[in-house]
Amino acid sequence: MTSSEPITLTYLTVDVFTSTRYLGNPLAVVLIPASLRPHLTQDVKQRIAREFNFSETVFLHTLDDEARDGLSVTSREIDIFTIEEELPFAGHPTVGTAYLVLNHLGWKHVDTLVTKAGPIAIRPLEGEGERVKATIPHAVHVHSQTLGGILGSGEVKPETETMIKASLSDDPYAIYPPTHYGPSGPYPFLLFGSLNEAEKRCIKFPKSWESPVASESGGTSKFKRCEEQVP
User: Region (Disordered) spans which residues (predicted)?
Assistant: First the structure.
């Protein structure tokens, strides 16, 4: 195959965490036979992921002849891409690919998906239809104290009021221009030069920075930005 020849790849779309079509988390899985792997550069995979425009797209590396050689290989490599970058690991792409491998493709002998973060054990859940299990390694730390135990509790001291300054007329764009833009909008990152004075300052967002959130009563409220300095 030359670099100018078109590449034909098989892909499937999966709805993860649901049994109802078009619900759950959508996922695209592109199958890459071993012989085509050298032709799928990082840039090509990233462009394919952008074309799908899902939160994640998985590239599943397969053998050239699964029927002949598949039973002897019990692991398959996967690459996980967002529309912006490759991820070493992500949850619903791993679970969705496990479902696809064990059920749709019928590769019951495959027991491991190899991500950039490491191997993930997978298996069907016996007696639960087509449900699958992915064993995700994780580290858990249980703290000996709760936050409430460390901070304590009690009434607000009268002098606290003098430590609070509020300004509702300042233009936050002029004071703290946004320093990062992500898929959801601007994210200001603030650096404080002094911690000598305890000061809390709440500033209204411009409309473009406000996000409505539902309240328990069914109404909406708006986020406000707060900067806090503690001595």
Answer: 210-231
Closest Cα partner for 206 from 227, 231, 177? 177
Instruction: Return the C-alpha torsion angle 147, 153, 156, 161, nearest 10.
Output: -20
Tens digit of pLDDT for each residue in 142-180? 888 887 777 666 666 665 555 554 444 455 555 555 555
Q: How far apart are CA 118 and CA 78, in angstroms?
A: 10
**Domain 10-135's class?**
alpha beta
User: Taking the alpha carbons of 61, 54, 100, 112 in that order, is the dihedral positive or negative?
Assistant: positive
> In the chain, what are the domain boundaries?
10-135, 158-229
SS3 29: strand
Active site residue 128: no
DSSP letter at 3 equals: T
- Catalytic one among 56, 155, 197, 228? 56
